Structures are given as structure tokens and as C-alpha cells.
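Example 3.2
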Amino acid sequence: MDVTERKFASINGDGLSPWMRVKKLPMILALHLKRFKYMEQLHRYTKLSYRVVFPLELRLFNTSSDAINLDRMYDLVAVVVHCGSGPNRGHYITIVKSHGFWLLFDDDIVEKIDPQALEEFYGLTSDISKNSESGYILFYQSRE
């Protein structure tokens, strides 16, 4: 991924935030969903299990003036899932698309799942601190 510029901008006048323009979109895009937050009153990290619906297809538009590729279509190819209630406890499983099928890898167990089963890993609709199985890292592959 080529970075054209790296700057800082004021957002809502509350200080400077880093940002960058991307010149060339990557072939593999990894998105990390921030599922853990430090809770000052508890003096520890807790899991954020809120619902994040991640699409099977994702189109990114490049707004950089010297962009090599203006837009790119991606397909979801893998999801790392955190199972548990906190960062210091739990288990990770991985769901991978291979040869047109979705496979769930849980240690030494591999099973084929339906694409609709991915919805089970979007997170919860209500309680943010409950034990859950939530998508944590998403991997998208470019169609180009």
C-alpha cells in the first residue's frame, strides 16, 4: 500500500488527529475491529460485543488526487473470531472461504458452514459485556 501524504487534521476543534491518503489500494485488506476497551472505573479492559455487520463484498473508493486505482472491489475471505468475555480469557476460531465454501477452523476441528452462519459472528444486539463470539479481524481480497 503506497501512502501519498501523511497529515494531521483538527476534528471538531478538539485537537489534531492523524490521517493519510492512500495512493494504491492493497490486494489484501485486513480490518481490525476494536472489540476491547479500557474501562477506567473497572481498571481493566472489557469486551465490546456490539453488533458489527460486515459485508461479504466491499467497495473502497480512493480519493487521493494521484491515486493509482480509484476504486476496488473486495470479497470477504476470512474472519478471525474471539469467543469469550474479555481480552485475557477466551478462544479464537477462524472462518475461511476456500474453493467457494466457508470453513470454520476450531483447533483441530474443521467444518463446512453456510454463508448465512457468518451472521452469528456479527456480535450482540444489546448487552455489550456479555460472553460472545464476535468477528475481530476481517480479511478481504481484491477481485483485481
